[in-house]
Amino acid sequence: MGAEVLLVNCNRLRPPVAPLGLDYVADVLHAQGIRVGLLDLCFESDPETAIAERLGEITPTLVGLTLRNTDDCYLASGEDFLPEFVRLVDVMRRHTEAPLVVGGSGYSVFPGPILAAADVDYGIRGDGEIALAMLAQELVGECEVRRVPGLVWRDGNEVKSNPPGLGPVEGLPGRTRSLLDNRRYFVEGGQAGIETKRGCDRSCVYCADPVGKGRRVRMRSPVQVGDEFATLLAQGIDHFHLCDSEFNVPMEHALAVCEELARQGIGERARWYTYATPEGFTLELARAMGKAGCVGINFGADSGDDRMLAELGRDFRAVDLWGTAEACREAGLLFMYDLLLGGPGETRESVARTIELMKQISPSRVGVSLGVRIYEGTRLSESVRAEGPVESNPNLRSMHRLRGAVEDNADFLAPVFYLSSELGDGAAEYVADLVGGDERFFFPTAEAGTEAYNYSDNERLVEAIKQGYRGAYWDILRRLSEGD
User: Is the backbone peptide bond immediately before 15 cis, with ω within 30 degrees of 0?
Assistant: First the structure.
């Protein structure tokens, strides 16, 4: 008998975000003759009963679990998703003897620690499509599974791992988007995701994307991207978010994708949003994006202070933000800047310069995060350890509180945040005073709460989507505040 794989989505946050990777993995499994089933816990009111019923119906070769995020990456709330994931794994373990394997973007950042924390048999870090198919076939054939790329496993008390599979994505089977109920995710989540490339070659000191997705950008062909848009449009979905780390890296690929979307008429039928870097962003690209259906761009600006941008490893400077604003306005695109305040060397003066620059440029919106999540494998994690004992690091704690799980968290698996000690106590109140209630800024305050700029379990967004709002969450929040 051939292999059978049950794929499980463990993400239950609202608004619901479709587990894109499961759709992509399923296409490869189908192409290799492997039967595929889905258990999507996102829409289950009683996940434990759903797990028991589904695993009582089938005897899969393996059960593949996706872990999209380990936490909400937000100091103001600091919600850790891993305990709930471990609980769901424990429930599955009670109802099946099939090997459990975990993958996904969240898992790939902490492959060893998560394998140790959860009662799973294997993990797959990096690309999961080919690796999961190989693992299923190896298990059926009773062969050596340890040759699977990206495989993580236990060898006695030691956790071992293979180098991740980070091959070309262009040669994977066509994406049918047929496993998930993508239409339901669109109706309840307001948008659908599409990937035009994978990996990131930027050098940001804090970012986990190169750790989990690879440091080499691997591109899909523009025709493949256009065809995937068309596939989802045929399912009644017309608002999208591109899941690339940076859409405009490399620039030539971004322009080619836009040209193909325009050629296929996608720009006349779809509205989409994306992430982009300010470095090298041009009016030519902005206009091409508009013709291809783009309506809004989220720029990872981080700071408006040149010294801080250098500290954070960014390859642009404050003057480049003016250029993005001019290009977007000329092309008729909405645009926002995401700020990441509190990194190494941040001072009240650098924060003040950043907030003032944002007010001068006046983008559609500004997202403000105070405190930088530390991820294993980043230059920030290395520099934190170089500063001495983590438990006593003044940038991870203040006189009044710890900034996350500072103690007994050597691998930073539980959320812990860097907030420059040079900001002193009352940093959040200081930033709030600088913002001064300006509605262009998303920043949590005592009045606004963390829903001001935290999408996880955001009831305001859930209700807006029920009322028919669609698109990127930052743009939905913008429209709500403006009564649009």
Answer: yes
Instruction: Classify domain 4-161 at the CATH superfamily level.
Output: Cobalamin-binding domain (3.40.50.280)
Give residues with Cβ within 8 angstroms of 102, minimum separation 6. 64, 65, 66, 67, 89, 114, 115, 118, 120, 122, 123, 124
Euclidean distance between CA atoms 130 and 172, whole angstroms: 9
Q: How many CB atoms lie within 10 A of CB 201?
A: 14
Q: How large is the C-alpha radius of gyration of the chain? A: 22
**CATH code that applies to domain 191-482:** 3.80.30.20
Q: Which DSSP string corresponds to 302-356?
A: E-S-HHHHHHTT-S--HHHHHHHHHHHHHHT-EEEEEEEES-TT--HHHHHHHHH
Domain definitions of the chain by residue range: 4-161, 191-482
3-state helix, strand, coil in the chain (%, to 5): 40, 20, 40
Which residues does 326 contact at the CB level (< 8 Å), separation at least 6? 283
In 439-455, which positions are buried (b, 16+ CB within 10 angstroms) versus exposed (e)?
ebbbbbeeeeebbbbbb
How far apart, in whole angstroms, are the C-alpha atoms of residue 377 and residue 211?
Answer: 6
Cα separation, 314 vs 344, in Å, equals 13
Residue with tokens 């180098």: 163
Q: Is 365 within 8 Å of 474 (Cβ atoms)? A: yes
Which among 410, 374, 377, 412 has a CA at the least distance from the CA of 161? 377
The pLDDT profile of the chain, 484 residues, written as one tens digit per residue, is 689 999 999 999 999 999 999 999 999 999 999 999 999 999 999 999 999 999 999 999 999 999 999 999 988 888 999 999 999 999 999 999 999 999 999 999 999 999 999 989 999 999 999 999 999 999 988 667 878 999 999 988 899 999 998 889 999 999 999 999 999 999 999 999 999 999 999 999 999 999 999 999 999 999 999 999 999 999 999 999 999 999 999 999 999 999 999 999 999 999 999 999 999 999 999 999 999 999 999 999 999 999 999 999 999 999 999 999 999 999 999 999 999 999 999 999 999 999 999 999 999 999 999 999 999 999 999 999 999 999 999 999 875 667 888 989 999 999 999 999 999 989 999 999 999 989 999 997 644 455 567 788 899 999 999 999 999 999 999 999 998 7
Task: Provide the token pair at 184.
Answer: 């339901």
Q: What is the DSSP string of 210-242?
A: HHHH-SS-EEPPHHHHHHHHHHHHTTT--EEEE
Q: Measured between alpha carbons, how far is 296 from 470 in angstroms, rounded to an integer? A: 12
Measured CA to CA, the distance from residue 172 to residue 193 in angstroms comes to: 18
Cα(285)–Cα(277) distance, integer angstroms? 12
DSSP letter for 99, please. Answer: P
